[in-house]
Amino acid sequence: MNENDLSYLIRGAAFKVHSALGPGLLESVYEVALSHELKTTGLEIKNQVGIRNRDFLSILISFL
Q1: Cα–Cα distance, 42 to 9 (Å, whole number)
Q2: What does the DSSP 8-state code read for residue 47?
Q3: Where are the domains of the chain?
Q4: Most CB contacts within 10 A, which of 17, 50, 53, 54?
């Protein structure tokens, strides 16, 4: 699976969740719904994965 295929699956899942639930709910509700939707597409996902500050800073600097 290339990046375009993966992006297509993720965006499709996000649009499906938003269409089903609509706006105005807590972020945690959308997180659970999107996690479920992504798992039904066959993707392996992890929620709320922590990263070390040093890793975060190097990621942040790469975008500057």
Answers
A1: 10
A2: S
A3: 3-62
A4: 17
What DSSP line would sit under 1-38, residue for residue?
Answer: --HHHHHHHHHHHHHHHHHHH-SSS-HHHHHHHHHHHH
Residues 6+ positions from 38 with CB-CB distance below 8 Å: 9, 10, 13, 45
Tokens representing residue 30 in the block: 């959308």
> Hey, is 46 helix, strand or coil?
coil
50 touches 43 (CB < 8 A): no
Note down pLDDT in tens along the chain; length 64 residues.
Answer: 899 999 999 999 999 999 999 999 999 999 999 999 999 999 999 999 887 777 778 888 887 7
The answer to whether 13 and 37 are in contact (CB under 8 A) is yes
